[in-house]
Amino acid sequence: MFISKIIISEDFLGIKEEMINNFGIKKLRFFIPQNEFLLDDARAVEKESYIAETEEKIIVLMADSYRIEAQNFLLKLLEEPPKNIKFLIVVPSKNLLLPTIKSRLICEKRKIEKEVKKLDLDLKRMDLRMLFDFLQKNENLDKNELMDQIALLAKECVKYKDFNAEELEFFYESYELAKLNSKSSLILATLLLNYYTKNEK
């Protein structure tokens, strides 16, 4: 029997294959948005969870990040799931989830064995000179490169600091601005200065 839980991992494909091997595709329902888990995704999860089942069904959510309103929408569902419904939430960092979500499920951290992209900036040691040098190297990124840098920056930032809902939302807004071909140096400077001043407090 599966126990609902959170898995901290970036290896979405590996976990998906593991779940299929362990439980069979018929018992699983996957919700894997391209980038962020939105309120519409949460509503789709709710709809799926209330489809009556005589046997256990595991609903698997995998996303690089989860919108705050989507997490709030899922709270009651996680607290009082319908009969025979279990949940698995996969996310790169537990700091991307609200405390109210984390308190409802056990949390399992998986080590990443494959090589992943890394941010070319040491946030733990960052001073204003390092920040300036990083911005100079990344001042002319195209849209996709900027979106990658914002995603990497968000993942690195939450490793070292706790962010509230409003601060997490700012990463999402920056990502959306990147899609509109906004200037990379301005977006990255704002994110990094916010992190730097938070670090100084």
Feature tags:
201 residues, alpha/beta, Rossmann fold, 2 domains, 5-stranded parallel beta sheet, two-stranded parallel ribbon, 8 helices, 14% strand, elongated, DNA polymerase III subunit delta, P-loop_NTPase, coiled coil
Shape summary: elongated
Determine the strand fraction and express it as a percent band.
5-15%
Q: How far from one another are the termini?
A: 46 Å
Query: What is the CATH architecture annotation of the largest domain?
Result: 3-Layer(aba) Sandwich
The CATH class of the largest domain is identified as Alpha Beta
Number of domains: 2
Summarize the structure.
Helix content is 49%, strand content 14%.
Can you characterise this structure?
The protein is of the alpha/beta class. The protein folds into two domains: 5-109, Rossmann fold (3-Layer(aba) Sandwich); 128-198. 49% of the residues lie in helices and 14% in strands. It has helices at 12-23, 39-49, 68-79, 99-102, 128-137, 143-160, 165-179, 184-200; strands at residues 5-8, 28-31, 36-37, 57-62, 65-66, 85-91, 106-109. The strands form two sheets. The chain has a five-stranded parallel beta sheet with strand order 2-4-6-1-7, with helices on both faces. Strands 3-5 form a two-stranded parallel sheet. The chain is elongated. The protein starts with a strand and ends with a helix. The model has no long low-confidence stretch (mean pLDDT 90). This is DNA polymerase III subunit delta. Keywords: Coiled coil. It comes from Campylobacter jejuni. Residues 102-129 form a coiled coil.
